[in-house]
Design a protein that fits this description.
Layout (H helix, E strand, L loop, with lengths): L1 E3 L2 H9 L14 H29 L5 E3 L4 H9 L3 E6 L3 H8 L3 H18 L3 E4 L62 H23 L3 E5 L9 H15 L8 E4 L2 H16 L15 H11 L2 H7 L3 H13 L16 H8 L3 H17 L3 E4 L2 H9 L1
Parallel strand pairs: 1-2, 3-4, 3-5, 5-6, 6-7
Length: about 400
């Protein structure tokens, strides 16, 4: 078992407390702090590889375990025969909501998901990807946004917070745990950009490693808010590949995909795949919530959307209503043209809207057709799949 933590917490521990007893000197500049964090990333990567190699040579399983999991999960991992389940869920979309000021919606998603995790823990050892949460830089700065779940985790964690920083380290050391970033606003230069890329690479590698170390995947609402989580899809595909290679026992992963998420995804697909030229208007660029503003414009007949589609808003509004009224993509009407341009006519002629939307949704559902994934719409069916 290799215990890991956020690099920011590790950095605090290495700097030491109020006395000059740390393994590292307090960083005198932002670049020095970033250099320390890059070293910690390298140390953690090497430690994981050495531990994995050692476990392979002895024929024992190896697990990376983040200390911001509940202590009960650590106990279950060591002393019970519960199946180990990796919790796969949207992360970036929730952060976008939080950053856009929709904090109540983001917090509600997290709380609902945590209630599902609590129930799953009765029959499984649940591994949570957000137990390590490092890629949370505020736009254009070296400051950190709030840590998942956007407030202190109230559960009994294995995590022990590091002691207070030496005063000399306070201006540049990144905040540990769920502490707010109280540093002055720091511009993100080249050093921070390199750190961001290094963290992103380790996220991808670590999440795939966690998938390889678990028995199956519990996937929570991958189409939340109409945005398809590519990270979730990659994790499902990676696990399915392990099953096909005989490296896993063939247990089916389970995806909770709500009706409302399918509808929202159909709407976004309608816009983003069939009408890409509308991005030239600027209505689909810039801030993340511009798309939602655009949808409201279309529904209300806003003058900007009228100009964008040259009077064709009524037809699109009708299509959006039908997307909302039915969870079945087959019911979305086809035929006709969505706009006066020849490009729109050609796109529509290639197939009706139902086919286009089905193709988009199928990126998640094709795994279900192969038997590696089971998609359910109700929470109870989600639980039953793991409690059976």
């Amino acid at each position: 078992m290799t215990l890991v933590d956020d690099i920011y917490d590790v950095h605090h521990s290495l700097i030491g407390g109020t006395e000059d007893v740390g393994m590292l000197d307090p960083p005198p500049t932002l670049e020095a702090a970033v250099h320390d964090l890059m070293q910690i990333l390298d140390w953690r990567s090497v430690e994981g590889m050495l531990a994995s190699g050692l476990s392979s040579s002895t024929g024992k399983p190896h697990y990376q375990f983040a200390v911001k999991h509940p202590a009960a999960t650590f106990y279950d991992m060591l002393y019970t025969d519960k199946q180990v389940v990796y919790l796969s869920h949207p992360i970036s979309e929730i952060r976008r909501l939080f950053a856009a000021g929709q904090r109540s919606e983001a917090v509600e998603f997290v709380r609902n998901m945590q209630s599902h995790v609590s129930r799953l823990c009765g029959s499984a050892t649940v591994i949570e990807p957000t137990a390590v949460d490092e890629w949370r830089f505020a736009d254009g700065s070296a400051n950190l946004s709030p840590r998942w779940p956007f407030g202190p985790d109230e559960r009994d964690l294995l995590y022990v917070p590091p002691g207070p920083l030496q005063p000399a380290a306070v201006p540049f050391a990144f905040p540990a745990g769920w502490n707010e970033d109280e540093r002055d606003v720091l511009a993100a230069g080249d050093a921070v950009a390199l750190l961001q890329k290094a963290i992103e690479r380790q996220i991808n590698a670590r999440d795939h490693t966690l998938v390889e170390e678990t028995d199956r995947i519990a996937c929570y609402r991958p189409l939340f808010n109409g945005n398809a989580s590519r990270g979730v899809e990659e994790e499902l595909r990676h696990f399915a590949g392990l099953v096909r290679l005989g490296l896993r026992n063939g247990q089916t992963s389970v995806v909770l995909m709500r009706d409302e998420d399918r509808k929202a995804f159909a709407q976004r697909t309608l816009i983003e795949r069939l009408l890409p030229g509308w991005r030239a208007t600027g209505l689909l660029q810039g801030q993340e919530n511009n798309f939602d503003k655009f949808i409201q414009c279309v529904k209300s007949g806003d003058s900007r959307s009228e100009a964008a589609v040259r009077g064709d808003v009524d037809q699109l509004r009708s299509l959006l209503r039908e997307c909302e009224l039915s969870a079945n993509p087959d019911s979305v009407p086809g035929g006709g043209t969505l706009g006066p341009t020849e490009a729109a006519r050609r796109q529509t002629a290639e197939g009706n809207l139902a086919l286009q939307i089905q193709k988009a949704v199928a990126e998640f559902e094709e795994l279900a057709q192969g038997g590696e994934v089971m998609i359910v719409e109700k929470e109870q069916a989600f639980y039953n799949a793991f409690e059976a």
